[in-house]
Amino acid sequence: MSIFPKIALKPEVTEYLKSVFLNNEVLAAVGHQEAESRFQNLLACLSHPPSHTCVRASTHLSSLEDIQHKLGEELRKQQMCSSSTVSQQILPHPQIPDVLLLPVDGPRPVKQLSSGVVVGAQCGSAVLRGAHVFAPGIVASPKYMKAGDVVSVFSDLEGKCTRGATSFQGKKVFVGNGVAEIDRSNIFCTDKPVKGVGVRMLEPLYQSPSFDGVLPSLVFLQNLPSVVVGHVLGPRPGERILDMCAAPGGKTCHIAALMRDQGEVVALDRIKNKIDQIHQNAQMFDLHSIKAFCFNSTQAVSGDPAQKSEGPPFPPESFDRVLLDAPCSGLGQRPSMANTCSRKEICSYQPLQRKLFHAAVKLLKKGGVLVYSTCTVTLAENEEQVAWALDTFPCLTLQPQEPHIGAEGMLGAGLSPEQLRLLQRFSPELSWERTDMTAPLPCRANMDTIGFFIAKFLKN
Question: Which residues form the signal peptide (predicted)?
């Protein structure tokens, strides 16, 4: 159900995406009307959250049933402390053994109040996924707002609200009501960094539980396709595995857990504080097989094959499996009400992805597995990269994926039907406005996801 405007994009980006989704191969296969419908559905669904929350369970520490039971108890405690009367289901995913699904209740009939705060678009998106409003996300508030005031929360779609304003007449959308936890003066009239919850949501437009501090070592909020990536990679105990663009470490920790913490998972990222976050996550999940380094993965191949150092760069053919979860334009993320990137920025990722691909293939052992993934919807970063990789590296062949719960690859990159069937593209636009919300949650969960892409290669 569409209650928000379609995602706000620069006109040049909208035209670019339209040319992708209405390319000649797609038009020949489904016709102009269906292709146009899919494109419009994409723009609509991106601004809305999926109909479920996906939680990855630490099944290397406890059984799924035990974690499901403990999570239920924690959420019941949370519910007793709030005004929510929604009964919270927790269901195991029928095909993925370490995933729990929780339905999102929304959109709900929440009445706007006369007094409101404005938050940034990123903060507004987090609220739609169950978060409270943290104080740094507040851009504007009523002039005399005090802790305890009940206020409506609006998301600034275009990032045009002036910080510290008392009102805003630009493009904004209502995301729910909450109670202020902090005075206005402590947000805008202080030299100290603002921390903590600024507005505790009481009546969010989309009701889903807050996981802040809930079973931190046993559950991890992760989009369903991101969990699927770890299973597609298929890590085995005793292997040496490389996660090339690892921060914040969710997939890294999942790989180590799937290996039962036996072997070595090397995680690389260019930003130092993100490496610290990977270390913290590994410690929280009691995983000891992870070694994280601050390093540019495009330079991770050593020119000295005899090099034996623990960290990067590494000799060629050092790893049994490589995950390249590549930096991308992120156009599959949901909910996302606005994206201010230019077409040039959207199209800037392909060269970097190819540099990373070159390094990945060199670092992979013969007979090893390379998984390439993105959270975007463009052909240039997905199917076109697969076509380029198959042409550039004759040693690579596409492999079947398990589990394969998304759609097949998208037409438009010149790949054969057989090759497209081996790819996995999560395409929420294919089911948007057609999903039966009365259908069982596990049936909906595989379709109503973020936009995501996965390709699996074997190095012959």
Answer: none
| 251 belongs to an annotated ligand binding site | yes
Distance CA 26, CA 17 (A): 13
Q: Answer yes or no: is 269 a known binding residue.
A: yes
Q: What is residue 180's three-state secondary structure?
A: strand
Domain boundaries for CATH 2.30.130.10 within the chain: 116-204
Please give the structure tokens belonging to residue 305.
Answer: 């094959």
Please, are residues 269 and 294 in contact by the beta-carbon 8 Å criterion? Answer: yes
User: What is the CATH topology of the domain spanning 223-459?
Assistant: Rossmann fold (3.40.50)
- What is the spatial distance between Cα 197 and Cα 119, in angstroms, rounded to a whole number? 13
- CA distance linking residue 174 with residue 180, whole number of Å: 16
Strands (DSSP E) contained in 51-128 are 52-57, 91-92, 99-103, 116-119
Q: 116-204 falls under which CATH superfamily?
A: PUA domain (2.30.130.10)
Place of tokens 């045009």: 160
Q: Which of 104, 73, 386, 86 is nearest to 221 (CA)?
A: 104
29 is in an annotated binding site: no
Instruction: Tell me which of 341, 347, 375, 443 is the catalytic residue.
Output: 375
Q: In this structure, are residues 185 and 144 in contact, taking their beta carbons and an 8 Å threshold?
A: no
Q: Does 247 count as an annotated binding residue? A: yes
Q: Do 357 and 385 meet the contact criterion of CB atoms below 8 Å apart?
A: yes
The pLDDT, as a whole number, for residue 443 is 74
> Is 253 annotated in some ligand binding site?
no
164 is in an annotated binding site: no
- How do strand 264-269 and strand 364-374 relate by DSSP bridges? unpaired
Domain with CATH 3.40.50.150 in the chain: 223-459
pLDDT, block means (10 residues), the chain with 460 residues = 86 98 98 97 96 96 97 87 67 96 93 94 92 95 96 93 94 95 93 91 91 92 97 98 96 98 97 93 97 97 80 96 98 93 97 98 98 98 98 98 97 98 97 72 87 98
pLDDT for residue 438: 66
